[in-house]
Design brief:
Elements (H helix, E strand, L loop, with lengths): L12 E3 L4 E3 L1 H18 L8 E5 L4 H14 L5 E8 L3 H18 L3 E5 L13 H22 L4 E3 L4 H13 L12 E2 L7 E3 L7 H11 L16 H12 L3 H16 L10 E2 L6 E2 L5 H8 L5
Parallel strand pairs: 3-4, 3-6, 4-5, 6-8
Antiparallel strand pairs: 1-2, 7-8, 9-10
Helix pairs in contact: 1-6, 2-6, 5-7, 5-8
Bound molecules: iron/sulfur cluster and zinc ion (ZN).
Length: 300
């Protein structure tokens, strides 16, 4: 039997990158301390801020809400949750049920926004790839607008070190270098854009899953029916991590150092204007969300 390094009880996991075996309770404390350190190191949340945590019901955003709730008990920030009902058949209903249970368990106020209220239905979009791109546009728009209109200082998402690395490689290989500010643990807001924060920047999907299981945090262990079947980049990243434990954490930490030396403006230097239809920030005449609305059949 492998024993916990801290208390000697039966270990539930061997964390290769830290050379640690931990029991259930010690893992929960260890994980929360790791996230707390990242939040302090990168000043992810500032004192007195009102944070809107966006939760989908999946393991990562559920872990994010749970750990942020624990941190909010000793740190000086306020926390509420937001769920976007994307209207994806049974999946959205199951996700909302889980998020309601999660928020009740954690005693966090839940805000629900429905995409159908804006006349958009993902079912009307033909391909899976286009659905995901429309869904991403809608989520970014609704998170930002809801947070700003309801007095939140920042929007927290459940992005993990795995997500950051996958985005980084995809963008780097396609020669897109205008992404940099989006890969930091905290992207400062400007004008109508609310600050975005990523408290799980240094945490991996596996660590989040283990935290949910060890702390009995409710989450939906099912993929969206529109999710792409395979993410090649994530497979490559897992493969490197298996061969070189600690690779992901080390890579994203150095990515922050590199980007901080390059990024000086919150708006990433891009020029912007206001959407002719809704007034939100955009780089074109009509924003991506309003273009999406125009292409969709209004809900009767
Ligand atoms: Fe949206 Fe589902 Fe695509 Fe995720 S997989 S972006 S939830 S449509
Ligand atoms: Zn618009």
């Amino acid at each position: 039997m492998i024993r916990c390094r801290f208390c000697g009880k039966r270990a539930v996991e061997v964390l290769k990158q830290y050379r640690l075996s931990l029991c259930r309770d010690c893992y929960v404390k260890f994980y929360e301390r790791q996230v707390e350190r990242a939040v302090k190191r990168y000043k992810i949340v500032k004192s007195g801020e009102k944070v809107l945590a966006c939760v989908s019901g999946g393991k990562d955003s559920s872990a994010m809400l749970a750990v942020m709730k624990s941190l909010s008990e000793t740190a000086d920030f306020k926390l509420e949750a937001m769920f976007i009902d994307l209207g994806i058949r049974d999946y959205s209903e199951m996700s909302l049920n889980v998020v309601e249970k999660l928020c009740e368990k954690l005693d966090v106020n839940l805000n629900v926004v429905r995409l159908s209220d804006y006349g958009i239905r993902l079912e009307n979009i033909n391909t899976k790839r286009k659905k995901c791109s429309a869904c991403g546009t809608a989520k970014r728009y609704l998170m930002n607008r809801f947070a700003r209109e309801n007095g939140f200082d920042c929007v927290a998402t459940g992005h993990t070190s795995d997500d950051i690395l996958a985005f980084f490689f995809k963008n780097w290989l396609s020669g897109n270098f205008s992404w940099s500010a989006k890969f930091l643990p905290r992207t400062e807001g400007f004008d109508k854009m609310v600050t975005k924060v990523r408290p799980l920047y240094l945490s991996s999907e596996k660590e989040n899953m283990l935290y949910c299981v060890c702390r009995s945090v409710p989450f939906l262990n099912e993929n969206c029916p529109y999710a792409p079947s395979k993410d090649v980049w994530k497979d490559i990243i897992y493969d490197i991590e298996r061969k070189k434990p600690g690779f992901k954490r080390c890579f994203v930490m150095n990515l922050v150092k590199y980007l901080k030396s390059k990024t000086h403006t919150g708006s990433n230097g891009e020029s912007y204007r206001y959407c002719r239809l809704c007034g939100e920030i955009t780089t074109s005449d009509i924003c991506a969300f309003c273009r999406l609305k125009q292409r969709n059949t209004p809900v009767k």
